[in-house]
Task: structure prediction
Amino acid sequence: MTFIRGISGGASAERLESLVRQRLEAGADKAGIDAKIWDLFGEEWAVMFTDLSGFSRQVAEFGIIHFLQTIFESQRLFVPVIEAHGGILIKQEGDSLLVVFRNVLNALECAFDMQRSTLEYNARHEPAEHVLLCVGLGYGRILKIGDEDVFGHEVNGASKLGEDVAMAGDVLLTQNAARLLQQDARWDLQVLPIDACDFPSEAYRVTEKSLA
Result:
């Protein structure tokens, strides 16, 4: 499986690079090349970006071993939950995870199960070792390069919400993701105006009505 994934990701990345190089050539038909790129790699996915609240402060206070421990524990908690909900872990960078799902509902249910896993874990550990999860979710057409990387407006939105806006325990949605849940009676959506870099201009905090 690892070998197959390596071939798929490598071939996709090489194809994309070739098209981008063509786009840079003088007189290139940029619109035509862009259309080809979207035709090859454009897909609709739900995008999850996670971050751990207070992580930089804890590293400064407790040191690099504490950093490694927290990363290890967060992986142990979250990866099985992601897999159980059909998520594909695209990449991990430090204390952040980038994950894609075929639909918003799977992503949202996964996010809340991840939050529940942190509550259970934190109840058994001292505050210095708590795992405090922030989640941003987006949905829309993105460029998916094998299972190696993703690019697009909703990727940026999920990253902005998860890394820069969400507080510990939050699950935040872009407008596109929230629209798909407005008729679902299980969720409360609270408008959360964001004044940051013109995206997202508006976002939503979501809670489960049964837990509100």
